[in-house]
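Lab notebook page, bench 4
Experiment: in silico fold of construct C2
Operator: M.H.
Input chain length: 390 residues
Purpose: comparison with the prior construct
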Amino acid sequence: MAFRVGAKRSLETVIYNNRIFKSSCSSSSGHKFSTWASQWGSLEQAAETQIAVLGDKSFGSVIFCRRFGSEASAVDQLDLIKQLRERTSAPIKDVKASLIDCNWDIEAAQKDLRKRGKVLASKKSSRTAAEGLLALAQNETKAALIELNCETDFVARNEIFQYLALALAKRALLINNPSQPSSEVLPVGPEHLEELTLNLEHQKLSGETTIQNAITELAAIMGENVKLRRGFVISASPNGVLSTYLHTSPQPGLGRIAGVLSLEVEDGNLQSEALQQTGSQLAMHVVAAKPQFLTKELVSSDALENERDILKSQAESSGKPQVAIEKMVEGRLRKYYEDVVLMEQKFIVNDTINVKTLLDNLSKEVGSPVKIGSFFRMEVGEGIQRLETP
């Protein structure tokens, strides 16, 4: 019974090898047998064949041959290509090429893809990467914000890209800098982050590695230039609370524009619901209104003189007397302050008041003076020169 089951599974192989046996040897000729044996030896070397000779009174001597070729079967090949594609997200043609080069060893092929991917990533590093996402990580006293860039919005929507962006922000949040002043924004550039280690748990990005290696591997998977552009850490003062807002957010912690704002309460009561709500609204205001300075006194002299020169040239073109020109310039400067100074801007939620009035009203509600310690606004790709499409 066992023999019949085995014969059914390998019937084609049996018939094929039986033909070889009958044509190459006979039971009564030792000379022909040795000739067959030498021929079989060369076949064995060419096809890496294992031979089993079974004796049976009913069937005579039959040679069974099972071929363990250096290549997988067509079905196995497709399965290996599918598996490696799922593991790496590399293009199918690259997946197949690596499997062929590695004799269909999937582990070796995956390693080969990673090696070749790093070469490809370095070749892509000169290409403009102005798309991407901002990732935000936050605890009670600190917030970390990083910008991870890529070439296309399509890649920025990929879940692997988003996973790594969030992992980078969480790692940046762990940076401890005792010398950082409270309520100030500390730049944390790639040079400070790239050699830090990450422990990744994504099915396509896993294990302990450096940030730089993780980004290189992601670039290989995505087939685009991926770049960690910049990072910032913002700490709240002992009597302050951090509020954040992310615009165009595909999932919590990610967005294309970020606003971070620190509110400080004189008596340290940070649990007020009104304080939390106003902080969130002001962080959204920072994103929408794009303030450049906190107060009029903090407007840089260079920015002020540059604006004054522009306004004076515009006023002089009207042909009015010098006295009238001076009044026009001062009036237009007030409008400039309303555009660029946070405390002078109209509040986006209620444009009948400005931010200064909003804080005065909030101070009365919480029973203690409230002020803005610092604010920060960041947008994906700002300042990067983008290539113009024809």
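Observations: The first strand starts at residue 49 and ends at 54. Residues 1-70 have pLDDT under 50 and may be disordered.
Next step: discuss at group meeting.
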